């Protein structure tokens, strides 16, 4: 969100002012939209005006913010504008969590209550209208430089089964662990991300959320995420050019195997050329996924073969690179194979990424955090860290 509130947010703020609240904008913070004070009670107000239902990940993030904030907030309101009633605007899981969170015994000692609302259900009881002739008089802190450039990452495939969707989801998880809110856009016709992660994910270690959209649902102006990752369609021509033009990075996962090299070398080169015909500026990278490191001599020979295949491409395109698996690679791990199993075993359980430790170690988490670090160090494009406030 920029320094100025958008039209709907202004309308919500005005409705509170008319009800006797004092509304102020403070230093930009993705956890809430503005602060409102009445009867000496400072309230964090978060306004969502996107089309999809607000899922539990956003509720968990807001609850975590209230529990740990040092700004004096005693309570919070989440206002959703997408539907007329709470039951339509919020998922049933989100509503249940909000109800439980209003009981102190359910939460930590630092609990702050929060409430869900739609425009017609804002406190105090229903106001007449959200239509106003002029915006409210709201104090704006102009000292904050505003949100920096969003980062867009496209994940493409050279063929089926190379892990494009798994890489998309877990790269999003690694950015969230690093403290960035992430939008994950599912353009793949199979819509696996939309199916498995429909509620989104809140990662407590990073105090950040991943929210999942289909391409028609995503509205950039309504997003408070610093990172947008797109799980692209395997049919290149099905990917909207307007989206491809936004990409700062394009990742192409492949496997370091004889079959992978034989099939993918030409296909990857063709994919790179197609991306470049639409976006001349993105950093393009081939990433080795599902890597087995136990056959040192064989791995070395296969790596040299890939490097030879891409040498000519790299020579004529300064922003193309084959990521050396000695520097950054995604290793084979059963956790990456079975992630999302909760959806099929018990649909009431929330789907989790493969970031749980076993015997004190978690190679998938470490691999994807290393990939985030590699992207920042080797491309010169970095997320706007000044806009992250968790």
Walk me through the structure.
The protein is α/β, with parallel strands linked by helices. It has twelve helices and 13 strands. The strands form two sheets. It has an eight-stranded mixed beta sheet, with helices on both faces. The model is unreliable at about 105-110, about 125-145 and about 385-390 (pLDDT under 50).
Strand order of the largest sheet: 8-9-7-10-6-11-12-13
Derived from helix and strand composition plus strand pairing, the structural class reads: alpha/beta
Number of strands: 13
CATH architecture descriptor of the largest domain: 3-Layer(aba) Sandwich
Number of discrete domains:
2
Q: Tally the helices: what do you get?
A: 12
- The CATH superfamily of the largest domain is P-loop containing nucleotide triphosphate hydrolases
Strand content: 15-25%
Could you report the average pLDDT, rounded to the nearest whole number? Answer: 80
Rg (C-alpha, Å): 23 Å
Low-confidence stretches: 104-111, 124-147, 385-390
Helical amount: 25-40%
SSE pattern: HEEEHEHHEEHEHEEEHEHEHEHHH
CATH class division of the largest domain? Alpha Beta
Q: What do we call the CATH topology of the largest domain?
A: Rossmann fold
Distance between the termini: 15 Å
Global morphology: elongated
| Main pleated sheet | 8 strands, mixed
Short description:
Helix content is 33%, strand content 17%. The chain is built from 12 helices and 13 strands. An 8-stranded mixed sheet has the order 8-9-7-10-6-11-12-13, with helices on both faces. It has a 5-stranded mixed sheet with strand order 1-2-3-4-5, with helices on both faces.
